[in-house]
Amino acid sequence: MHLTTDIQDLVLIGGGHSHLAVIKSLGMTPIPGLRVTVISRDIHTPYSGMMPALIAGHYHFDQAHIDLRPLCQQAGIRLFHSSVTELDLDQQLIHCDNRPPVRFDWLSINVGSRPNLDAISGASETGIAVKPIDHFLDAIEQLGEQLLSSSGPHSIAIVGGGAASVEVSLALQYKLQQLPAAHSNRLRFELISATEQLLPAYTQRVRRYFARLLKARNIHLTSGSPVSSAQGKQLTLSNGKTVDADTIIWALSAASPQWPSAAGLDCDEQGFIKVNHFLQSSSHPQVFAAGDIAHFSARPLAKSGVYAVRAGQVLAKNLRHLITGKPLTPFKPQQQFLSLLMTGDKYAVAARGKFSFKGRWVWQWKNRIDSAFIEQFKPSTAMTTAPDHLPAAAPMRCGGCGAKVGNRILQRVMSGLNSHNRDDIIIGLNAPDDAAAITPPPGKTLLQTVDYFRAFIDDPYLLGRIASNHCLSDIYAMGGKPHSALAIVTLPHASEKLLEDNLRQLMQGAVESLNKQHTSLIGGHTSEGAELSFGLSVNGFIAEDKIISKAKAVDGHCLILSKALGTGTILAANMHNMALGRWVDSAIEQMLVDNSKAAELLYQHGASACTDITGFGLLGHLLELLGASQLGAQLHLNAIPLLPGALQCLEQGQLSTLHPSNAFNRKALLNAQRFKHHPCFNILFDPQTAGGLLATIPTEQAGNCLRALKAHGLADAEIIGSVDGNIIAGTVLLH
User: Fold this and answer.
1) I need a surface site. Which of 114, 222, 367, 544 has the fewest CB within 10 A?
2) Which CATH number, 3.40.50.720, 3.50.50.60, 3.20.20.60, 3.40.50.1580, labels domain 8-113+256-336+370-375?
3) Which residues does 721 contact at the CB level (< 8 Å), separation at least 6?
4) Distance CA 308, CA 66 (A)
């Protein structure tokens, strides 16, 4: 039997319009031996053509964004949610703001642009930029709330002059005019254009139409004098005049991030990456760029989504051809393209060259075009990553001890880990031997636990962090403190450099979580296998008389759950490309929270019994506690905290493979028949990864305990029921 092996890395920085085409192409026809990774600040990437209508309120969020997570998931492409801070072209490393560096053999950059705030003194400290769009949308929602809660006039200045500033002005004016008249009538809008002519790239006919429209919408136009500085609520123009505004919005010309030029890529004066006819860096042939970040050296191109979309197919083809050794194809941007400008309401203007036309039918036409673009990047059966696309001639991989990861890789990775050091570790990573040796603290009892599971996410760094939190939870549940851990790692078959990269990412994530919880990594075992898997054998210590066991629950004590439920159904939905990216991100964010603080607060408030909620789900672990204590319980379904998207995933029938087994516990529910159609019923059986703690707390302490948990960042913690000795032992009554 021959197993597949990844050999090289292609990294796509950014989830822009050009990279969408690359992701789709590589998903439909993968390149044998190529591992592909997308690094993106945005999981939901906005489609620029729909942003004015989104601002105006004609679309909801999901209609105007492309969800990268299911798209990448189905394409077999890793998605790292992060922002690039530095690029090391010599070492072929990408440094990010919240994770270890990411290696690459081939690189493509499509990160878009931001308003050039550095061109105006004080702009970066004042007002709101239209990009990134998610920040702008949040700011506009806050502005609407502010206007509803205040009285008196409110002035809004939009600084720009190009198509973006005009569309944003009209869209924002339309949105805010939907407020009650008492609030909307006191608004004053002003558009400040640096150029004498509004929309200088368009014909006089189009310019005249928009000038009349702005006047009709009571948007005052100041043109021909750029803003030179901003301070507080005042703008100073180049002619010395000032404009006062309560809200300032920046819709300026595009600016590039600094890291491409700092890395040594050949860039123009504004920092945009110079590319040749093939969209290939003029200085580094292994690097490509497209969209706003690229400067097409053959001729200047407007920073327009139209060019980015058109470049996508050529970029996808050229990346494939470069990697497979085929000739590259030149990108031939059109001399003219059709612009569709929105007027705030459901009306639009179309312009190409000297021709233009307008009407509600243009808006409807634009809506169909834009919606079709979004639709083509939803996961479908057309995209596949079947094993047939991968190399079939990889060498046979050994089993037994021959499956161990090579010593050179282990030495390089382990030497770079900065594991928490303890004086009572005699032999550990700092002095490796056949086994680790530790000195137990005097008067303490040893606690030991082990957990290990397959990867549920394609990011080894996040897997290391989350799995470590999961594995330490059993120690916290018994009132102990984790002390040290041994790692158990299975790495997917790959070339040596990719194998080392996977191990480094995984172990850096694990050590980061372990160090945060004052737990030392003292050794472990690695092997190669069909898929990434990870676990820990954990040592902890506790005074024998302080052990919190499941058998010590007290009649009448409240049940407090420290985290929301839903990771099982959300991760199952993610496997089937049915979960929204933000649902998965919310689940990941919760799984990255360890249980150390929750345990500390629960025990401070008198926890009599405790367990962690993991694979057997809330009901399974509760029944273990009740069975050991010979008590029953009441459980309030409506009080159970849920992760965003959990109910939607359950309603879709997206269940973990362990869910049916867990559901056999429904026989312990005294009134299951009555509640079987309740929306939260199935969450009782949902297995959790890195779930929270469930503790029994004295009634008089429960309120204070809950407030303390919430005050320390565990906002989802809730009182979900109580222990009840009048209910049959080992059973639960639902409410």
Assistant:
1) 544
2) 3.50.50.60
3) 558, 559, 633, 634, 635, 636, 639, 732, 735
4) 15
Q: Residue 90: count other Cβ atoms within 10 Å of its Cβ.
A: 7
Length of the chain: 735
- Residue type at 224 in one-letter notation: G
User: In what helix (H) or strand (E) does residue 533 lie, and over which residues does it extend?
Assistant: strand 533-542
CA–CA distance, 250 with 220 (Å, rounded to integer): 16
Give the gyration radius of the chain's Cα atoms: 29
Summarize pLDDT for 418-460 with one digit per residue, the tens: 777 788 887 777 766 678 888 888 889 999 999 998 999 999 9
Intervals of the chain under pLDDT 70:
1-6, 380-411, 414-415, 431-433
Residues 669, 590 contacting (CB under 8 angstroms): no
User: How do the domains of the chain map onto residue ranges?
Assistant: 8-113+256-336+370-375, 117-254, 400-545, 549-734
Return the pLDDT at 417.
75
Contact residues for 90 (Cβ-Cβ < 8 A; gap 6+): none
Asked about 401 being catalytic, the answer comes back as yes
Are the C-beta atoms of 46 and 133 separated by less than 8 Å? yes
**Contact criterion met (CB below 8 Å) for 459 and 534:** no
Fold of the domain spanning 117-254: FAD/NAD(P)-binding domain (3.50.50)
pLDDT for 386: 40
Q: Which CATH fold would you assign to the domain 549-734?
A: Phosphoribosyl-aminoimidazole Synthetase; Chain A, domain 2 (3.90.650)
24: helix, strand or coil: helix
- pLDDT tens sequence across 106-124: 999 999 778 888 889 999 8
One fold for 400-545 and 549-734: no
Three-state DSSP class for residue 638: helix
> Structure pTM?
0.90
* Residue listed under structure tokens 């560096």: 101
Which residues lie closer than 8 Å to 585 by C-beta, 6 or more apart? 43, 69, 81
| Res 414: pLDDT | 66
User: Is the distance from CB of 567 to CB of 473 less than 8 angstroms?
Assistant: no
Residue type present at position 577: N
User: Residue 407: what pLDDT?
Assistant: 64
Return the structure tokens found at 34.
Answer: 């190529």
pLDDT tens column, 139-167? 999 999 999 988 889 999 999 878 889 99
Which residue of the set 72, 267, 401, 558 is catalytic? 401
Predicted pLDDT of residue 441: 87
pLDDT on residue 214: 95
Residue 291 — φ and ψ, nearest 5°?
Answer: 80, -155
Answer whether 24's CB lies under 8 Å from 383's CB: yes
In 3-state terms, what secondary structure has residue 730? coil
